[in-house]
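Exercise 7. Predict the structure of PRELI/MSF1 domain-containing protein from Parthenolecanium corni.
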Amino acid sequence: MVRFYEAKTTFDFTWEQVAQGFWQRYPNPESTHVLSEDTTYRQIRDGKLYTKRLLTKTNKIPKWGERFISTKTVKILEESIVDPKNKTLTTYTRNLGMQSIMSVAEKVVYKSCDENPDKTIAIRTATIDSHVFGFARTIQSFGLERFKKNCTKTVRGFNYVLHSMFPQQHKHIETIPHSAAVIQRSNKEKLKDAAKKASDLAKSKTSFPKVESI
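Solution. The predicted structure, encoded as tokens:
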């Protein structure tokens, strides 16, 4: 039986920043397993950017899996569609090698958050399958758990890149001690009083004397 996975992640960055940072995700401290990335196709159609990339990643194999898998690297095909008009970035990834042993197909949609346009929502769905007779369920369960851990690392790594590219500008607010605040407020009130007195004095000097009616 195929295993399914779904998760939602919120990035504290605008969609434009996430879409820009997507192409610079590697390297980062969480991506030591990514050995290479190559763009094999890129085209703009109907205002959308279509891209295909080939990633090479290391493939750590548990002891029980060594009887099925001999290679320690795996090729990943990543296809993406950037739609700047609707502010969506959709990615599709799947492994090209060892599909008969375990196949992982993932879809991620990055879109602007409806409640807060300064944030981006990533909706991730994936299927994990295996066709190894007698071991399919074991391999699927292993693949699902490893996929979950990798997703956590992926989000941490992407956040690291985004924070590096777009340092958050926090407004610096100085905390004024209570006594200083009182003095500051008192000084402001004195200035207001002085200004009011000066204004009243100026008005009295420029006003015309009242003329009684005859």
